[in-house]
From TrEMBL:
GO MF, one example: hydrolase activity
Domain of life of the organism encoding this protein: Bacteria
Name of the protein this chain belongs to: Cof-type HAD-IIB family hydrolase
Keywords: Hydrolase
Organism, as annotated: Streptococcus raffinosi
SUPFAM superfamilies xref list: HAD-like
A Pfam family annotated for this UniProt entry: Hydrolase_3
Length: 255
C-alpha cells in the first residue's frame, strides 16, 4: 500500500519528555518513521527552538508549526504568520501587572519576561531576558506568544476569566502553572490545516490541551498516557510513549 504520510509531533512531554533531551528509544523510532513519512513538529515553542532541537538531534523537519500555530513553515519557507494585536498586548500587560502574574513573551528571536525558570536547560538557547522598563519593552515588540505563569494550580481558574476578558486572543492551559496565549484563530490545528492538503494520512502525536485542535484535524492521533483525560478523549489512540505510537502506526498501516 502506498502512503504520502505526514507525522507531526508535539515536543515537550511527547517527543522531548523531560523538555531537555529526546529519549534514545524515541529517537530510534523517529529514524524508523522518517523512512516512510515526512516529519513535522508542532509546538508552543518558537521556530528558532524547533531548529535548535532539530540540529542537535539531526532531525529532518519538513514542516514546522511554532507558537501553537502563529508561525507555520514548509520546507523552510514561512507559509503563515500572525502576531498578537498591539492593543490586546497592551491590555494584557496591564492585566498581568494588576494581577502580579509572571510571564515571558516571545518575538521572532528573543524571550523577554519576569519569570525565573527553575531549569535553564529547558530554555533551548532562548534565555528569558529580564530588563529595565520590562512592560514598555514588551509593548514595543511584534509578539507571537505569551506564556503566563500563575501560582501553582491557579491556571485553571484564570483561563475562563482571560477568555472572557480578551475575546481576540486564544488561551491554552499547559499543566497546572502555565497558560499559553496567541492571536485569535491560531492553534496547532489551524497550522496543520495549512499543511495536510499534501498528505494522506496525517498522524499527530501530543499530550496537552494545545494538542486537541491538532488531534481534531489529523486522520490518526496518538496521545501520551500521562495526559489529562480531556486530551486523551479526543485522540484515536492512547500510548505510553512516542516509540510505542510509532510501532502501533507501522502495524496499523501494514508498513
Amino acid at each position: 500500500m502506498t502512503h504520502n504520510i505526514l507525522c507531526v509531533t508535539d515536543l515537550d512531554g511527547t517527543f522531548v519528555k523531560n523538555s531537555i533531551q529526546i529519549h534514545p528509544e524515541d529517537l530510534q523510532a523517529y529514524e524508523k518513521l522518517s523512512a516512510y513519512s515526512d516529519f513535522a513538529i508542532a509546538t508552543g515553542r518558537s521556530v528558532k527552538e524547533i531548529t535548535y532541537i532539530a540540529e542537535r538531534n539531526h532531525l529532518n523537519v519538513v514542516c514546522a508549526i511554532g507558537y501553537n500555530g502563529a508561525v507555520v513553515t514548509e520546507k523552510d519557507q514561512v507559509v503563515f504568520s500572525k502576531t498578537l494585536p498591539p492593543t490586546d498586548v497592551d491590555n494584557l500587560l496591564k492585566y498581568l501587572k494588576e494581577e502580579s502574574i509572571t510571564f515571558d513573551a516571545l518575538d521572532n528571536q528573543e524571550r523577554v519576561g519576569n519569570f525565573n525558570h527553575e531549569d535553564k536547560r529547558r530554555l533551548w538557547n532562548m534565555p528569558i531576558l529580564c530588563m529595565d522598563n520590562l512592560y514598555e519593552n514588551v509593548r514595543q515588540r511584534c509578539l507571537y506568544k505569551f506564556n503566563l505563569r500563575p501560582e501553582a494550580d491557579k491556571a485553571e481558574t484564570y483561563v475562563p476569566e482571560l477568555k472572557a476578558r480578551f475575546p481576540n486572543l486564544e488561551f491554552y492551559q499547559s499543566g497546572s502553572t502555565r497558560i499559553e496565549v496567541t492571536a485569535k484563530g491560531v492553534s496547532k490545528g489551524s497550522g496543520l490545516e495549512l499543511l495536510k492538503r499534501h498528505y494522506q494520512p496525517v498522524v499527530a502525536f501530543g499530550d496537552s490541551g494545545n494538542d486537541i485542535s491538532m488531534f481534531e484535524v489529523a486522520d490518526i492521533s496518538y496521545c501520551m498516557s500521562h495526559a489529562p483525560e480531556v486530551v486523551k478523549e479526543v485522540a484515536t489512540y492512547v500510548v505510553d510513549n512516542f516509540a510505542d505510537a510509532v510501532t502501533h502506526l507501522e502495524n496499523l498501516l501494514d508498513l
